[in-house]
Amino acid sequence: MSNRDSRASTVDAVIVGAGFSGLYLLHRLRELGFTTRVFERGSGVGGTWYWNRYPGARCDVESMQYSYSFDEDLQQEWHWPEKFSAQPDILAYAEHVAKRFDLTQHIDFETEVSKAHFDAATRRWHIETNTGATVETQHLIMATGCISTAQIPEIDGLSDYRGDTYHTGKWPHEKVDFTGQRIAVVGTGSSGIQAIPVLAEEAEHVTVFQRTPNYSIPSQNGPMHLKYEASWKQRYSDLREEMRYTGHGSIKDLNDKPAMSVDEDERQATYKERWKIGGAGFLTSFNDLLFSQESNDTASEFVRQKIRQIVKDPETAEILAPKTYPIGTKRICIDSGYFETYNRDNVDLVDISETSIKRITPTGLIANDQTYDFDSIVFATGFDAMTGTLFNVDIRGRDNLALKEKWYAGPRTYLGLMSEAFPNLFMITGPGSPSVKSNMMVSIEQHVDFVTESIVHMRDRELELMEPELASEDEWVDHVQEVANKTLFPRANSWYMGANIPGKPRLFMPYIGGVGTYRRKCEEIVADGYRGFRFEPKVAAAAAE
Ligand code: N01
Predict the structure, then answer these.
(1) What does the longest C-alpha to C-alpha distance in the chain come to?
(2) Short-list 463, 448, 460, CA closest to 417
(3) 298 lines ligand 1 (CB under 6 A)
(4) Nearest atom in ligand 1 to 188's CA
(5) Of the residues 211, 283, 383, which should be mutated to test ligand 1's pocket, given the most ligand atoms within 8 Å of the CB?
(6) Is the CB of 418 under 6 A from ligand 1?
(7) Which residue of 496, 500, 509 sits with most ligand 1 atoms within 8 Å of its CB, as the best mutation to test the pocket?
(8) What is the rounded CA–CA span in Å between residue 533 and residue 526?
(9) Other Cβ atoms closer than 10 A to 33
(10) pLDDT tens-digit series, residues 402-444
């Protein structure tokens, strides 16, 4: 297909987003001979890694496991410089993939899809963008990511502030120089925890405003060991296959014992060893940390003790030590020298758990009845996760039903892939799938393969529409909650629960039953003739029957 054809106004599939989901989708669909349009709001590929350019941004899944598996040459040839990759290296990888598979020329950059309406008469989706482009498509695939709508809280006075403001998830492309500046950081989730140590190295003074403390485990990051890299590359295809059927889509050493089945000495020794290794594997120190409060308490206390040992000022250490929710039920953070940063003379911590920020002033902010002046404010305040980006597009299915309306009490999907009344609308890593509770690369590849194989299934059988049965969707929605309710996750006010966005329904959005379990379910459903989905033949083919 020529470059001009890819600007066609009628295509087989529209893909929204050119992150890792969109790129792989584009590659597969083009390989299979489908016509496509890809719309991307950024000026380049990479999705999350295009936007989150804040200082210290890094992936907390190991580099050898956070990459595509679909091309053997690609995975053999690519070299990751560090055990955990920094944002610029991951973005360079996304750009390399786009170039290597000749994808970039087929993407409309700086173009946001504003409307997507299903027309029952033509059985096509009608797409409109902010640039005025309109397209008719049979299939619409939302590859828009789960954490892509950045949130700056509505604080009084924000528009009057005369200094510079930043959000970690929408960081400028050019280097921001904080040298000599007094800066505020609001938010201590994964992004804040990664950015604060780096900002503290550069700025004259950093004041951190913390609403809820977070559990964080050191990454113990370092240069990639060439022997380690070679050991992965020798067995890459076997290891990738193993990853696909694990609990979280990555190979971690799960200790298959409950925490309380061993004595105190063994428990402490296990946590110490895991802390030394670093990374999210701390949560697999025992097999019941996310199910048993008693077991979880032992891990939570271990981390609190570590914080008390690292942070020299006991009052600061106590503010940093999380006590109101079980470890792991808000996304575990992985850091490089986070708690140590509070031993620096140029870093202060302000506890706003009881009071919140009262207002922003032209020169700073007021919190706890104290006035602070800042040259810049960095918001590390998170995202309207999983549904926010989908709702930013006016998506309407059968009978003009808005997705937002259908999901007013929480997302309703079958397998996190489709929603009834929205034929041929697919979501990559949508709510109700393992998505953010997994190694995203593994879940992305699985969903892209599922979607492209479904589209081929339809083409081969002259089917025109695919849609979940309402009963299957209802059953799946209940199942997602049932599985989550057996865990400790609902006990935290996390973005997994929608708790960070005022007015958002409170329910656990991802599927926590495990990446392998989920994958097997999908395989069984396909083997059983796409159980729970219904298809409609092409109108002409139907009439001929
Ligand atoms: O966002 P968050 P994030 N006043 O929502 C606080 C992925 N990620 O960007 O906890 C004051 O976790 C809020 O406080 P509270 C990863 O999946 C991955 O850090 O709601 N504070 C919290 O402290 C991650 O989970 C990587 O009480 C306010 C913070 O802002 C997800 O992205 C790196 C506030 C937001 O934390 C999101 O992480 C980075 C207010 N009005 C991100 N509103 C890696 O791979 C919010 N906060 C390593």
Answers:
(1) 80
(2) 448
(3) no
(4) 23
(5) 211
(6) no
(7) 500
(8) 10
(9) 10
(10) 999 999 999 999 999 999 999 999 999 999 999 999 999 999 9
Residue with the smallest CA separation from ligand 1 atom 44 is 59
CA angle 392, 210, 358 (to 5 degrees): 75
| Contact predicate 212/322, CB 8 Å | yes
- Please say if the pLDDT value at position 2 is more than 70: no
How many residues in total does the chain contain?
A: 545
Q: Which string of DSSP letters, residue by residue, matches 344-361? A: STTEEEEE-TTT-EEEEE
- For residue 388, the CA-to-ligand 1 centroid distance in Å is 15
Query: Which protein residue's CA is at the shortest distance from atom 34 of ligand 1?
Result: 381
Other beta carbons less than 10 A from residue 159's beta carbon: 6
Architecture of the domain delimited by 3-149+385-465? 3-Layer(bba) Sandwich (3.50)
**Does residue 458 surpass a pLDDT of 70?**
yes
Cα dihedral sign, 326-331-335-339: negative
User: Which pLDDT belongs to residue 189?
Assistant: 98
Q: For residue range 510-544, list pLDDT tens digits in order.
A: 999 999 999 999 999 999 999 999 999 998 655 54
Domain ranges of the chain: 3-149+385-465
Q: What is the CA(496)–ligand 1 centre distance, in A?
A: 11
